Every structure is written in C-alpha cells, then in structure tokens.
Amino acid sequence: MDIYVKKQRWKIYLLGFAAIIVGLSLYYTNILVKKIAEDERQKVQIWADAVQSRANLVRVTDEFFEEMRGEERKRAELWARAVRGIIEDDNSTDISIFESIIVENTTIPVLWVNAENIIVGQRNVSGTNEDTINYVNEPFEGEIREAFSAYDPIPIEIAGVVDYIYYQDSWLFKSMQHVMNDLINSFLSEVVINSANVPVIITDSDKTSIIASGNLVNDNMSDSLQVQQVINSMADKNEPLVIELPHHGTCHVFYTHSFLLTQLRYYPLAQFIAIGIFLIVAYILFSTARNAEQNQVWVGMSKETAHQLGTPISSLLAWIELLKMQGVDESTLNEIIKDVGRLENITERFSKIGSEPKLIPLPLKDSIQNSIDYLKTRTSKKVQFFVNDHTGKNPEVPMNIHLFGWVLENLSKNAVDAMAGSGVISIDIYENTSSYHVDVSDTGKGIPKSNFKTIFNPGFTSKKRGWGLGLSLSKRIIENYHKGKIFVKNSSPAGTTFRIILRK
User: Among 52, 369, 487, 491, which is disulfide-ready with 447 (CB 3.0 to 4.6 Å)?
Assistant: First the structure.
C-alpha cells in the first residue's frame, strides 16, 4: 500500500513541478511578447513619423509645383502681351523689349491661334521624338489641339479681333513633374514596406477605404466586408496611428503584430503540446512493456506454484489411501479428501494462468452457489451468505469454473475481513441487454473512493499481513480470460459492492 501511496504522491509532485515550469515559461514568454510588442509599436511609431515627414516633403513639393505652374502662366501671358506689342507697333515705340521677351522664352511651348482657328505662330513646340514640328498655317484641331488643352488659352485683342495664345508646361516643369510623380508613387510603397515587418493598412479618414496595405497574409482586399473585418481586428489589437498624406488628408494607420511575434506567442504552447504528446506516447509504450513484464512474472510464478503443489498433493493422496486401510474415522477422511480436492482445485487455477482457458457455458447461479457452499463451511458462523437470481432463470454463461470460483473466493474473503468476521454477504444476479451483472455486496467498513482503482494493483492491500494479489488476480481473470469487467460499484461505511460483468 505504501508503494502506491508514494507513487501517487510522486505523481502529484511531478505534475505540480511540471505545472510550475509551464507557468513560469508562459509567464516569461508573455513578458518577452509584451516587450517585443512595445518595441514593434515604437518601430511603427518611428516609421509613421518618418512617413509623416516624407508626406510633408511631398506636400511642400506639390505646393512648389503649383506655384511654378502659376509662374509659367504669367510668363505665357507676358509672352502674349509681347506679341501684341510688336503687332500694334506704330514705329514710335522701342519694340526691342518685346522681341527680347519672345526670343528668351526657350522652355514654354506656345501656339498663336487666330480667330479663324488657324495657327499663325509657335514657339518651342516639338513632337514625340523631341524634334521641332512646324504647325504654322495649319488648323488648330486634332492631336495638336488636344495636346494644348490642359490650360485655358490667353486671349489677345488685335485691331478688334481676338486671337488666343495656347501653352503647355515647359520641358523643365515636365521633368520636375516626372520626378514628383516618381516621388509620390514610391511614397506609398515605402509606407507599406516597413522595417518593422508588421501587417499594416492605411485607410482614409472614415476608416472604410484602403489607401495602401502591406505584409498581409491575404493581399486580396477587394471584398468590403473582409476589409472591414481586418480593420476591426487590427483596431482591437492596437490603437491606430494618425498621419497626414498628400491628396488624402487625415489617414489612419492600422497594424497588427508581426508573424514573428505571433510565432513567439504560441511557440511555447506548441512546444508543450509536442512534449506532452511525446511523453504520453512514451508512457503508453513504457506501461505496455511493464505490463508485459508483469504478465511474464505472473505466468512464471503461477506455473511454478502449480508445479510445486503437484508433488505434495500426490503424496497426500497416497497418505489418504493408507489412512483408509488403517481404519481412520470416515468423517475425518472425508474432510481431508475435501481439502486435498481444494488443493487440486488451487493447482488447477494456477496452472491455467498464462494460457487461454476453455470457457464452458454453465448455470451462473449454480456455479456461484457451489463456490459459496464451500466457503460457508470454512467461514465464521456469524457471516451469512445469500445468492439471489433476479433473472429467475439461472442463465448459462461461458466461464471457467475454477477461475471464476477463485474470483468469488477472493471477493468473499476480503468481505469477511472487512466485516471483522460478522455480517452479511449478498450475491445478486441481474440481466442486461448483452451481459449479466453479478454484484457482490458486504456490510463491511467500506473502501475510500480514492482507492477504487488502486485496490486492483498488484501489492496493494490494507491488511497488515496481506499480499495484495487477490483482487489483481481477480481483475486479470475477469477481464483477460472472460472478456468482462470488474470494478467497485459503490462503497460507504455501511458496506461495499463489487460488480462483475460477464458477456452472454
């Protein structure tokens, strides 16, 4: 009994120690996760600040181009007035200043279109291959009109007739605009590709439309419902950052933890699960090997016991015959013969351990009654035995009578010990759909609920001189040989009931 108590205690100690290790590991991992999460937020904040600075640069650059566009229109208007000044010259004005304005315009493409929609003059106009093309005296229509329709024309009135000056952005402005476009295009790429490597989404001020996203597991964000779910999920995990973007105004940056942080968060659990599975498999294999070794020990011990009992039993049989010839009292000889028969029965039981016993259909009540009748003569008169067949038909059940009787004997002897030699033992037979139940009840002191399973372990006993083998053998006989079950049905200080389940 001490072995199993100590074993149980060690299990509790080891389980508690494992729980402490798991708890400390999860606690420390949680601290690391919080630190990394804070570090990621700081990185995202630094990145967002850098994005904001870049956005300010883009905005200032955009404002600069707006101012440059206004300056070019002023230059185009100045060019138009110079043209009108030359045309309206009455030889009393110095037109060199007008000529200088017209000649020094080397960057802004301009077209002079008369009232009849004919091009009468041009400056700095080139084709797609950058070569100058002469459009003078051609109608202002088609591709050339489309190319010069970006800005409103500048009207010039000459002798009561209104002509128009059309212009484009200068090649200098276009070059700088190209740089500006590259800057804006690369801007959002830099926004979503961040050094923190965290999934990020940038939305408008309403938090409904996605401007840019990056590092997402699913980059297909065409479904509006899915988009809202992702945004809500990120908002639940981290407070969004607010930045100002050119052409978009106030925007919100939503982000979640990086995949690395998520792995770190769940890695200990995965590790413990893997270790747990390994330990469970190892325990099952170890238990299987241990049970196989125990079976070998049981079989070897049983066979050897049967072998050792065979010789003295043969000798006792010879002595009985000698006593008969000497005229010993017949009643005495009959009792000796019963005990020798009992020894033969025990030898038969031990010899069958380890081999598949032959099960023969026998009347269940009669088999139980025969075993009880033998026990009555060798038990205190203060112990009463009752066999009750609630099926009313004494059903036949496949069994090995020697081994099954051994089980009843073990249960009955334990019951007598539990009742201190005085009480009632009842054996009740019930029928189920596919089995018969045999309940062995006593009026003893009961068994603690914590020992309901332990009492079937080899060596477990509450007796000072017990071996703790009877119930272990009974369990093997019922479950291994008869393919049934045996367990403690219930127990209290008023008594205990063992249930045996036998297949029909």
Answer: 491
**Is 0.85 topped by the overall pTM?**
no
Q: Which residue has the higher pLDDT, 202 or 389?
A: 389
For the residues 102-129, what does the mean pLDDT come to?
Answer: 80
pLDDT tens digit sequence for 404-457: 988 999 899 889 988 988 999 999 999 998 899 999 999 999 998 888 888 887
Rounded-to-integer distance, Cα 124 and Cα 105, Å? 8
Residues 6 or more apart whose CB falls under 8 angstroms from that of 142 comprise none
Which residues, other chains included, contact 367 with Cβ-Cβ below 8 Å and sequence gap of 6+? 399, 401, 404, 405
What amino acid is encoded at 22 in this protein? V
What's the 3-state SS for 354-398? CCCCCCEEEEHHHHHHHHHHHHHCCCCCCEEEEEEECCCCCCEEE
133: amino acid identity, one letter: I
Q: Cβ contacts of residue 101 below 8 Å, gap of 6+?
A: 78, 79, 82
Q: Is 253 helix (H, G, I), strand (E, B) or coil?
A: strand
Pair 95, 124: CB distance under 8 Å = no
Cα angle value 495/499/504 (rounded, 5°): 155
Rounded distance between C-alpha atoms, residue 80 and residue 112, angstroms: 9
